[in-house]
């Protein structure tokens, strides 16, 4: 009986300690992302292992950098910018809005458009939903001075509610990019982006970002848009991906799809719904 009583007391003590420690370990995704980004990459290995990995990483980085430099040298003119003398699609003009004429999307052949658009602003807003405890908003603005390139700004506002601790955590991710559509067909465009990511909310750190974007104008009034960006802030990944379908009605559109964010080690999966307007 005494043995059983001791076991019972031990079990109750362990259960009490576990329950008491729950609030300390009930950290949400947003708080985890912010804490990891503030601290950066932590080095926990022994100094000998660190030196070995550092030397190995230096060799790999040098090899990768040489390969990247050689690759850029080969494709910078044709692969990234294009040949305006031989690629007719690079001369396609900017439309006032997709499907204004025929099945043309963001660009249209100059011969079929009497009044080409020389300046356009695209504004889009998406509500992001993961659960009742995790949701957000994504505002995107494209400023297109002409058909050759555009500047894009993104603002992610994420909120997470912790019912256990009755707390709310927020994360604000800002993204500013220079964007260039390498392919400017009437029904399909594909391009690259290059810019910077910045996270506020006490983190206040930025990182270089790059990615790809594409839009396919499938049929009258319907298009599919996708964009992916990679970035590192304080040595940790801050990546974005989105895919959505759009229904266009003159210079308005409605959209629904999926958005993914990886901010440090936590990953965020959202259903998105919203719309946009072309000015």
In which order are the strands of the major sheet placed? 3-4-5-6-7-8-9-10-11-12
How many strands? Answer: 12
Number of helices: 3
CATH third-level topology: Porin
Major sheet size, sense and barrel closure: 10 strands, antiparallel, barrel
Q: What general outline do the C-alpha atoms trace? A: globular
Content of β-strand:
over 45%
Overall CATH architecture: Beta Barrel
What is the CATH C-level name?
Mainly Beta
Q: Give the topology string: H per helix, E per strand.
A: HHHEEEEEEEEEEEE
Report the helical percentage. 25-40%
Distance between the amino and carboxyl termini: 82 Å
The number of distinct structural domains comes to 1
Radius of gyration from the alpha-carbon trace, in angstroms: 25 Å
Rounded mean pLDDT is 83
Structural classification: alpha+beta
The parts where pLDDT drops under 50 for at least 5 residues are 15-26, 43-54
Your description of this structure?
The protein has 279 residues and is α+β, with helices and mostly antiparallel strands. It has one domain (82-278): Porin, CATH 2.40.160. The protein has helices at residues 2-25, 29-39, 47-81, and strands spanning 93-94, 107-108, 120-129, 134-144, 150-162, 167-184, 188-199, 205-219, 222-233, 236-249, 252-263, 267-278. It has a ten-stranded antiparallel β-barrel with strand order 3-4-5-6-7-8-9-10-11-12. Strands 1-2 form a two-stranded antiparallel sheet. Strand 8 (205-219) and strand 9 form a beta hairpin. The longest helix is centred in the N-terminal third of the chain and has 35 residues, at 47-81. The N and C termini lie far apart (82 Å). Residues 15-26 and 43-54 have low confidence and may be disordered.
């Amino acid at each position: 009986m005494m043995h059983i009583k001791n076991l019972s007391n031990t079990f109750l003590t362990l259960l009490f300690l576990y329950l008491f420690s729950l609030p300390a370990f009930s950290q949400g995704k947003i708080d985890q992302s912010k804490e990891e980004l503030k601290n950066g990459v932590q080095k926990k290995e022994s100094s000998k292992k660190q030196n070995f990995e550092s030397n190995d990483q230096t060799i790999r980085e040098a090899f990768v950098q040489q390969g990247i430099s050689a690759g850029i040298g080969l494709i910078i003119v044709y692969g990234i910018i294009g040949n305006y003398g031989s690629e007719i699609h690079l001369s396609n003009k900017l439309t006032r809005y997709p499907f204004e004429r025929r099945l043309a999307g963001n660009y249209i052949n100059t011969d079929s458009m009497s009044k080409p658009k020389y300046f356009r602003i695209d504004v889009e807003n998406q509500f992001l939903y993961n659960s009742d405890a995790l949701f957000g908003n994504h505002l995107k603005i494209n400023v297109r001075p002409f058909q050759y390139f555009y500047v894009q700004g993104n603002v992610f506002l994420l909120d997470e509610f912790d019912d256990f601790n009755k707390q709310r955590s927020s994360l604000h991710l800002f993204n500013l990019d220079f964007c260039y559509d390498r392919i400017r067909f009437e029904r399909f465009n594909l391009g690259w982006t290059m810019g910077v990511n910045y996270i506020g909310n006490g983190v206040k750190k930025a990182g270089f970002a790059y990615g790809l974007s594409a839009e396919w104008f499938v049929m009258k009034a319907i298009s599919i848009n996708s964009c992916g960006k990679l970035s590192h802030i304080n040595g940790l990944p801050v990546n974005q991906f989105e895919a959505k379908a759009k229904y266009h009605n003159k210079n308005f559109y409605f959209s629904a799809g999926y958005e993914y964010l990886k901010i440090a080690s936590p990953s965020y999966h959202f259903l998105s719904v919203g719309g946009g307007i072309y000015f």
